[in-house]
């Protein structure tokens, strides 16, 4: 009982003490609104834009679109950010949106080569080959030594089966960039379609000295086999190519890579070789395409 009394009196003392404490009036907290320096916004937007560009490189296109839009909201007058957004949209197959982004970039400055190159890439994917050629020519008018533009022009002419102009464009691409193996490789595609198999073989051997890639490996294997079915090198190269990239067993993928009808048909003949049965079965199972 004594303990309860002690506690009771202690509570009373505390309460009475608090009565004599003077409470200071509380002031409402008014936040200080931060206005960032315009240079900070520009620097931040460029950093975000570069990150978006990296995301495109690694196939994270949806994230890249979000980042590019954020960067543009901070710095809408930066043409490169609109181009990055267009590239992200192109990679995500949002072609109409990509064209709108390019138009926004054009309104800022139409004299940027990458703008016209990106526009051409979008038009190529839309199947508007002549529009793409017009855009590429505008790119080359601004920047004459643009190897990528010549390469894209060569691809457009190859789709149109304009072999002479395609060869010319690929040759110009390699003059600007001598080790541009994709451009050299595509010259081989043209020579094979024109019936000049030996020239195609020379070209693909040259490519493989620059880059050991499954496409020229398989193309060379097909060309060698079409001349001499007993050629052991052709079987070896075909096995290596299909193990490295099983998609090349598919005609749909071959068409995407602009292989002509003659090379595709010759490939079918090679694939019937019994020595390739095991690798063909595996490639067929692992390819993201179906024949």
From TrEMBL:
The keyword Phosphoprotein does not apply. The chain crosses the membrane at residues 7-23. SMART domains: TPR (SM00028). It holds the Pfam family TPR_19. TPR repeats lie at residues 79-112, 147-180, 181-214. Coiled coil: none annotated. Keywords: Membrane, Repeat, TPR repeat, Transmembrane, Transmembrane helix. This is Secreted TPR repeats protein. It comes from Prochlorococcus marinus (strain SARG / CCMP1375 / SS120). The lineage of its organism: Bacteria, Bacillati, Cyanobacteriota, Cyanophyceae, Synechococcales.
């Amino acid at each position: 009982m004594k303990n309860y009394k002690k506690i009771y009196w202690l509570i009373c003392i505390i309460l009475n003490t608090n009565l004599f404490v003077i409470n200071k009036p509380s002031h409402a907290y008014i936040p200080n609104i931060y206005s960032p320096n315009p240079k900070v916004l520009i620097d931040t937007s460029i950093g975000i834009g570069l990150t978006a560009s990296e995301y495109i490189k690694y196939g994270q296109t949806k994230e890249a679109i979000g980042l590019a839009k954020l960067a543009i909201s901070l710095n809408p007058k930066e043409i490169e950010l609109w181009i990055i957004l267009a590239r992200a949209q192109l990679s995500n197959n949002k072609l109409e949106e990509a064209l709108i982004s390019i138009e926004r970039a054009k309104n800022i400055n139409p004299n940027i080569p990458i703008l016209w190159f990106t526009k051409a890439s979008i038009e190529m994917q839309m199947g508007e080959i002549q529009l793409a050629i017009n855009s590429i020519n505008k790119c080359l008018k601004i920047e004459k030594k643009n190897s990528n533009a010549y390469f894209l022009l060569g691809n457009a002419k190859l789709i149109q089966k304009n072999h002479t102009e395609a060869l010319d464009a690929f040759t110009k691409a390699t003059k600007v960039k001598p080790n541009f193996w994709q451009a050299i490789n595509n010259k081989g595609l043209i020579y094979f379609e024109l019936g000049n198999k030996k020239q195609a073989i020379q070209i693909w051997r040259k490519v493989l000295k620059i880059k050991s890639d499954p496409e020229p490996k398989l193309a060379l294997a097909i060309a060698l086999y079409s001349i001499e079915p007993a050629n052991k090198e052709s079987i070896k190269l075909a096995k290596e190519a299909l193990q490295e990239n099983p998609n090349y067993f598919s005609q749909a993928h071959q068409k995407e890579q602009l292989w002509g009808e003659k090379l595709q048909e010759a490939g079918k003949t090679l694939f019937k070789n019994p020595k390739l049965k095991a690798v063909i079965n595996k490639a067929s199972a692992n390819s993201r395409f179906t024949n």
